[in-house]
Amino acid sequence: MAKQGTLLVVDDNRNILTSLRYLLVDYFARILTLDSPVTLPTVLSQDEVDVVLLDMNFASGINNGNEGLYWLKEIRRLRPQVGVVLFTAYADIDLAVTGIKEGAADFVVKPWDNDKLIRTLVDVYNKVCAHKKEKKRTSAKTSGTDAAMYWGNSPAIRPLRALVEKVSTTDANILITGENGTGKDMLAREIHRLSNRKDGPMVVVDMGAITESLFESELFGHVKGSFTDAHADRIGRFEAADGGTLFLDEIANLPYYLQAKLLTAIQKRSFIKVGSNTPQPTNIRLICATNRDLDEMVRKGEFREDLLYRINTIHLHIPSLRERKEDILPLARMFLERYAKQYGRTNGTFAPDAAARLLAYPWYGNIRELQHTIEKAVILSDGGELRAESLQLTATTEKTTAQTVGEKAEPAFHTLDEMERTLIGQALEQCGSNLSQAASKLGITRQTLYNKMKRYGL
Questions:
Q1: What is the chain's percent helix, strand, coil content, to nearest 5?
Q2: Which residues contact 202 (CB under 8 A, 6 or more apart)?
Q3: What average pLDDT does this structure show over 254-262?
Q4: CA angle 341, 342, 346 (to 5 degrees)
Q5: Rg (CA), the chain
Q6: In terms of C-beta density within 10 A (0-12 exposed, 13-18 middle, 19 or more buried), how is residue 15 classed?
Q7: Which of 154, 234, 359, 366 is the right S-S partner for 181, CB 3.0 to 4.6 Å?
Q8: Phi, psi dihedral angles at 248 (to 5 degrees)
Q9: Which tens digits make up the pLDDT trace of 151-188?
Q10: What are phi and psi of 292, to 5 degrees?
Q11: What does DSSP assign to residue 410?
Q12: Contacts from 438-447 at CB under 8 Å and sequence distance 24+?
């Protein structure tokens, strides 16, 4: 087999270290040895170690295995992705079993059988590799991380930008609030880009899209056999985000009874996989976002106050597009250039009537609605200057608060999509943005409602 990976052997018997180096040289690309575990933290911080073969007892006069268990916990704390195989005497098998419960991958008994030792170490290395591939698949690295966010120049956005630039380099937990479509996810990505964790993963979790029954498995992962369909180990989002940023979008949609589980993981900076009893540390920077008033939800008993304190070290509120009218046309031009290039159009400018319509429109769907409007206009146009009719915006979407007696009311919508969007908006307003209640009122599932909200920018 081809040599690959790095093995670290920790044993106080130098003869054993020499023997293992000769035995394993054909199976690992690099073999590091330590005759004392004291420098283990330094080695782990400087080298990309895949597997550690760790003796349970060292030359301290104590042979109860506690030293090995201590260093096992240190390895798990410092480099949880490293596979640890315990090296123990036959009399210490019970201790090795305890080590397995503490997170070791396997154990080998001294005196060892060469074939069994090689097979065990290679198997653990293969599991580590599979785990890394799964983590890479699960991790959602920020797309376009190197590209800075477009801020605009309106007076409403300048204070937010100054605060973001100040707090991004810290590891403080951040709560982002704002209406739907204001760009809370883009702001979270910008914070990650500006942070000291920019080279690590940014994992995005849409809390509104996670099935309640799979909440723990999605966030914390599970071990093989922990439930009916658990055919293999799976890493969760907390583990995938290790060393980077975990972004929990739509945090207000997390049911109350699950909030305690999230709070515990945030407080302890560790989690327990479904089907396991071993806490696993994680090193994340937490960013949450919501369009709802969490203080009001706390008053109503819908959101835990202690969880709000934990996620709200720094509060960033994004102003609506209506509050930053100076940025409407620059944003529209940016989207026009992007989609003209994407769809092979020659659109370059907005006609004066189109620019006036863009500025007059209330943009209740904010930047997301503006983006979708420009994309649709580019697709439907034949190129050249975009005129007002190409935008397909109604003259106004303001609600009529009073009508002349006897005057026939004009419909508030002209298409089925507009009607559906209006009905969903009304249901959400009547139910205080409670998705479960609004879905029941509309006669659809919560997931269907959530998908439609995403579609219409609500």
A1: 50, 15, 40
A2: 140, 141, 142, 145, 188, 189, 192, 241, 244, 245, 247
A3: 92
A4: 35
A5: 28
A6: exposed
A7: 366
A8: -100, 100
A9: 988 999 999 999 999 999 999 999 999 998 999 999 99
A10: -105, 165
A11: P
A12: 447/209
Torsion 403-408-414-419 (CA) sign: positive
Q: What percent of the chain has pLDDT over 70?
A: 89
Token pair, residue 289, equals 């976002």
Lookup: tokens for 11: 């044993």
Q: How far is CA 161 from CA 157, 306, 441, in A?
A: 6, 28, 39
Q: Helix, strand or coil for residue 54?
A: strand
pLDDT in tens, 288-347: 999 999 999 999 999 999 999 999 999 999 999 999 999 999 999 999 999 988 888 887
Q: What six digits make up the tokens of 126?
A: 């293969």
Cβ atoms within 10 Å, residue 331: 19
Query: Considering only CA atoms, which of 132, 41, 46, 136 is closest in space to residue 81?
Result: 132
Cis amide bond preceding 330, omega within 30: no
Burial (CB count within 10 angstroms: exposed 0-12, middle 13-18, buried 19+), residue 310 = middle
- Res 247 pLDDT > 90: yes
DSSP state of 407: P
CB 67 within 8 A of CB 97: no
Task: Give the CA distances from residue 186 to residues 93, 285, 287, 389, 422, in Å, rounded to whole numbers and listed in that order.
Answer: 52, 16, 12, 30, 26
Question: How much is the pTM?
Answer: 0.64
pLDDT at 137 over 70: no
- From residue 56, alpha-carbon distances to 37, 219, 279 in Å are 11, 33, 21
